[in-house]
Amino acid sequence: MNTAEMVQAACKAIEDLELADAEEDAEYYRALVADEAFGAACYRCENTGIYAQREDATDADSAALEALECSVHQHAQRVKEELDEWRRAPD
Fold first, then answer.
1. pTM score
2. How many CB atoms lie within 10 A of CB 66?
3. How far apart are CA 47 and CA 34, in angstroms?
């Protein structure tokens, strides 16, 4: 996985997992896309989703997808909290 694939997966996950919020500013989304852990989780989630939709997918595949989607949401929350802390920090 390269950086471009992680960025593409991050952008897709923001849309697909409904992480976009009209009240958030662009800085938050730039921080999400730039966060390596978020991008990696999104990349793995995207690839697991492709496999989990196959006919021969198992219940474990579906469970793995759910866990990865949860991980993506948790990474997004972490980035939001870090950005909020940075904004509140005194100059």
1. 0.86
2. 13
3. 20
Q: How far apart are the first and last CA of the chain?
A: 37
Enumerate residues 6+ apart whose C-beta is below 8 A from 3.
Answer: 39
DSSP, residue by residue, 22-87: TTS-HHHHHHHHH-HHHHHHHHHHHHHHHHHTSTT--HHHHHHHHHHHHHHHHHHHHHHHHHHHHH
| Residue in the block written with tokens 């593409």 | 8
pLDDT of residue 11: 94
| 10-residue mean pLDDT series, the chain (91 residues) | 88 92 90 94 93 92 95 95 91 68
